[in-house]
Write a structure and sequence with these properties.
heterodimer; A: six-stranded mixed β-sheet; 9 helices; B: alpha/beta; nine-stranded mixed β-sheet; 35 strands
């Protein structure tokens, strides 16, 4: 891919967006979302009983004068939360594309580039973490919008190959990044191994999941007819099937059921899910689908 | 049923071959494909996998059946499948419409012409034919001229009938029936009838076995008198005097007395009353003098059915003699040479009178020089050596002259001796007529640039002993003829009949070249056999037969009127009965082709790519949670 992933005009449109997360994370100041954890902020949050070892500067001395008991003032904080972007680079990301639509891998790279730019504009740090059957070498993007070009170059140099192993990937991820934060996963969630349980582990560990499932038209609605031999792009396994209208309908129902399970998993763990056909324009996704998810989150907060 | 030239087994073999080919293509199209997908888990969960051995049955057999049935129908359509008896298929008929000169005559007992009655008979015949029958309409006269191809289109045939008109030639029944027989043999359908429609009058009694299958007789009123020949030629030895010859013929069965009117340039000549016995001929001759050009017309007041042979005309050009201006100081010696023939009109002037204002076609300069060369072709007699029109190489004395017996103007005479002579330098294009041992002494030089044709005699032919030899007038005649071609050529004019013309050549003409041209200068094919020349003209036109001695002008505009009745034995006459042609075989190839097309469309709609186009789009899954209900799942 020699062309830029995103053109300049599109990048300018992205500057009004912000990455949000729903959970309250502890951490240093510098983020955008208010945390329910008390910290060194400016906004008063609550009082609690003083315990030895607490910072005496936060003691409410007026309350002590009245009640002769030590109460500690707690303040709200907007902590800096790590944002990690997991990009699926398995071989299935190249399969199933039609000539009139991009591959899932190309789409994922463009979407990742857009999210990185949104984060850089707000001075967030975003970790780009590719994975397939394990975690691959990451790239940390931070320091403002002028640091976008290295991230884009890194994305353009990515290649998709190999199978997906969500168990191993999750195990490495939880061991590598103990600090909880927002985890955005760009993947087709298709492969030989199960992805639901590893994702559940990740959520249980405290990460907020934003699952972005990408699919092509052929992934969801295969158009073939008759007897056909299907080969798994990752494992090389093949099956011989007879395609007709009923079989295609059953396939699509299974695919949709799998997507529904992913969505339920995300919602159940306080995360978000969005399914995106790669034929959808990237602008529609960023200003439509993902923005709707954010709007819904705010409505729930109210 | 019949399938063109294929028998049933042959047709089935062709069908099986093409059907096998289509089945192979079908199986190839439906062959198992391979495809790389993102995952197999949903196919397994959908229960669509088929791990059994490949099935032996044909998938979507109805698609193959529809294609094979369509192929069968298309083959039958291409084969022009008909239902009925082979003998009832359309037949190919040839109709010979007589367009000879008799077609212009009045039909017997009717005010209509023969050609009109022929058209009516042919139309009735066409109406009696079955619609599948194809007909070729041929105009029959001296040659057969097809007016249409074999066609079942009655409108086309009727249009061709309306365009057909009577011609000027006589019917050559042998040629036209031979053509019709050949055309019928060429046809691909069943052979039909050869039908002749006309008055059954041929140019001669042809003892041929070729006869038509059916005759649509149209009787013509044969009481006709006409001009068969009309010719004019100049009287020998009498300038501007013509001899006209008219030959009249009575084709009828009653004697007739006619009045022959002659006009020349609108001036009537003395009419003649001519009695012609039945079937006989009479000749009338006129001798008249004129210098002016004009049209000589011969006409009879026959008032018969065929008017086209009642009048003939010939255009006579101005019959001028060649104007020769002679500059000489010894006119008495030259007069016998240049003023003896009626074709020449000589004016003599002394050499000092050059140039005279008299218009001349030819100039003779006798032993003299001129300051300016003449503008007309010139004959120089013994010009002075210093100012001769041709360069003089040398002079000789007492030399023997040899005449050139070959070339375009051979001169056959005995060898003579001259006292002295100039020898001329010759160049390419010059023709030597006489020479001595040292070179040419009589030379003809063709016209070049602005110089006219020139002939030079390098000695004095009027000096003794040459003036008493026969070679001298031969030499002058040859030179004059060369300088003015055609001046001595005899012209005859003949108004004749369209068709074959015969010309009897004179003995002098038989060895020489002959050209046959029409008025447009185009060559007309001809044959020469012994002393007879023949050529053919299928339409009225003027033909020139030109030899060295004569020019014959044939104005072939009289109709060639045939005389012999054509009795056709063992031939069906009249129109066929309406029951003569049984209902034709039912030809339903169009329906077969339409059915095949419908089946192919159905196959494409049900099993082809159209099926994908008709597949309804599946509902898109919700791509993000948007409502509180979804969030309540947590």
């Amino acid at each position: 891919m020699s062309q830029p992933l995103l053109d300049r005009r599109f990048l300018e449109q992205l500057e009004r967006l912000t990455l949000h997360w729903q959970k309250s994370f502890s951490g240093l100041v510098g983020g955008h979302n208010i945390s329910h954890f008390a910290g060194a902020g400016q906004e008063f949050l609550d009082h609690r009983t003083f315990y030895p070892g607490d910072d005496l500067r936060s003691v409410n001395w007026r309350a002590y004068m009245r009640f002769e008991k030590l109460f500690l003032k707690m303040f709200q904080v907007e902590p800096r939360v790590p944002v990690r972007l997991l990009i699926d680079t398995s071989a299935s990301m190249l399969a199933g594309s039609s000539p009139d639509e991009p591959t899932k891998f190309d789409y994922a790279r463009r979407l990742a580039a857009a999210l990185v730019y949104i984060g850089l504009v707000r001075l967030d740090s975003i970790l780009l973490q590719p994975f397939a059957d394990r975690l691959l070498d990451p790239f940390l993007s931070s320091g403002g919008r002028h640091r976008f070009q290295p991230a884009e170059n890194w994305l353009r140099a990515l290649h998709a190959k190999g199978p997906t192993d969500y168990f191993e990937t999750t195990r490495q991820y939880l061991g590598e990044y103990p600090q909880r934060g927002l985890t955005i996963i760009l993947s087709d969630f298709l492969g030989a191994s199960d992805c639901l349980r590893p994702l559940q582990y990740m959520a249980d560990f405290g990460h907020e999941l934003l699952l972005v499932q990408l699919w092509t038209r052929e992934d969801r609605e295969p158009a073939d007819d008759g007897e056909i031999e299907l080969i798994d792009s990752e494992s090389g396994a093949h099956v011989r099937i007879t395609l007709d209208t009923a079989a295609r309908r059953l396939y699509t129902e299974s695919f949709d059921a799998n997507s529904e399970q992913l969505k339920k998993l995300a919602l159940r763990n306080g995360g978000r899910y969005t399914g995106i056909p790669v034929s959808t324009a990237l602008g529609d996704v960023l200003f439509g689908t993902l923005a709707l998810a954010e709007k819904s989150r705010r409505a729930r907060a109210v | 049923m019949f399938f063109l030239n294929l028998t049933g087994p042959e047709f089935l073999t062709l069908l099986a071959t093409l059907g096998g080919f289509i089945a192979a293509l079908y199986l190839l199209d439906r062959a198992k494909g391979r495809k790389v997908v993102s995952t197999l888990q949903f196919w397994v969960s959908a229960g669509a996998t088929d791990q059994r051995e490949p099935r032996k049955r044909v998938r979507e057999p109805w698609s193959l059946v529809l294609q094979l049935v369509s192929l069968l129908l298309l083959l039958l359509a291409i084969s022009r499948l008909e239902w009925g008896n082979r003998t009832n298929r359309g037949r190919d008929h040839v109709i010979l419409l007589d367009t000879s000169s008799w077609a212009a005559a009045r039909a017997a007992g009717s005010n209509e012409t023969v050609i009109e009655r022929e058209r009516e008979q042919v139309r009735r015949y066409l109406n009696a034919l079955s619609p599948n029958d194809r007909v070729m309409l041929v105009a029959a006269a001296s040659v057969a001229e097809p007016l249409t191809r074999f066609t079942a289109d009655r409108a086309e045939l009727n249009n061709a009938l309306a365009r057909a008109h009577a011609g000027f030639s006589a019917l050559n029944r042998e040629a036209v029936i031979a053509f019709a027989t050949q055309a019928r043999n060429w046809s691909e359908n069943n052979a039909g009838e050869i039908v002749y429609a006309g008055p059954q009058i041929t140019e001669r009694d042809q003892g041929t076995s070729l006869t038509p299958d059916r005759v649509l007789a149209v009787a013509a009123d044969r009481e006709n008198c006409g001009i068969r020949e009309f010719s004019v030629q100049p009287q020998p030895n009498e300038a501007n005097t013509w001899h006209a010859f008219v030959r009249l013929k009575n084709y009828g069965e009653r004697s007739r007395t006619l009045q022959l009117q002659m006009h020349y340039a609108s001036t009537p000549l003395a009419p003649r009353r001519v009695a012609i016995p039945a079937g006989g001929e009479t000749s009338v001759e006129y001798i008249f003098s004129t210098q002016a050009a004009g049209e000589l017309v011969a006409a009879i007041d026959a008032g018969d059915s065929l008017a086209s042979d009642d009048r003939a005309s010939i255009f006579l050009p101005r019959n001028d003699a060649l104007r020769v201006t002679v500059y000489t100081d010894r006119p008495e010696a030259l007069k016998p040479l240049v003023a003896a023939g009626r074709q020449l009109r000589a004016d003599f002037f002394p050499s000092s009178a050059y140039p005279a204002s008299t218009a001349a076609d030819l100039v003779v300069l006798d032993t003299m020089t001129v300051s300016s060369p003449p503008v007309a072709p010139a004959l120089w007699i013994n010009p002075p050596k210093e100012r001769a029109p041709l360069p003089v190489r040398s002079s000789v004395t007492n030399a023997a002259i040899a005449w050139n017996g070959s070339g375009s103007h051979p001169l056959h005479a005995k060898t003579l001796r001259v006292a002295d002579a100039n020898i001329f330098e010759t160049f390419e294009g010059d023709e030597t007529l006489a020479s001595v041992a040292q070179g040419a002494v009589v030379v003809i030089r063709g016209a070049a640039r602005n110089l006219p044709k020139t002939a030079v005699i390098g000695f004095d032919p009027l000096a003794a002993p040459l003036r008493f030899e026969v070679a001298t007038p031969l030499l002058f005649a040859t030179l004059l003829d060369e300088l003015s071609p055609g001046a001595f050529r005899t012209r005859t004019y003949t108004a004749g009949e369209v068709g074959l013309a015969r010309v009897v050549l004179d003995r002098e003409e038989q060895r020489g070249p002959v050209r046959v041209n029409n008025n447009r200068g185009e060559s007309v094919p001809f044959t020469r056999r012994n002393n007879e020349l023949q050529f053919f003209s299928g339409r009225p036109e003027t033909i020139h037969v030109v030899s060295d001695e004569k020019e014959r002008v044939f104005d072939l505009r009289l109709p060639a009127v045939a005389e012999h009745a054509w009795n056709v034995p063992d031939t069906t006459s009249g129109l066929p009965a309406s029951s003569a042609f049984e209902p034709p075989a039912l030809d339903f190839w169009k329906w077969l082709a339409a059915a095949a097309a419908v089946l192919l469309i159905v196959e494409w709609y049900l099993f082809g790519r159209a099926r994908r186009l008709r597949r309804p789009a599946l509902k898109q899954p919700q791509t993000a949670h948007k409502t509180e209900e979804e969030l309540a799942i947590r």
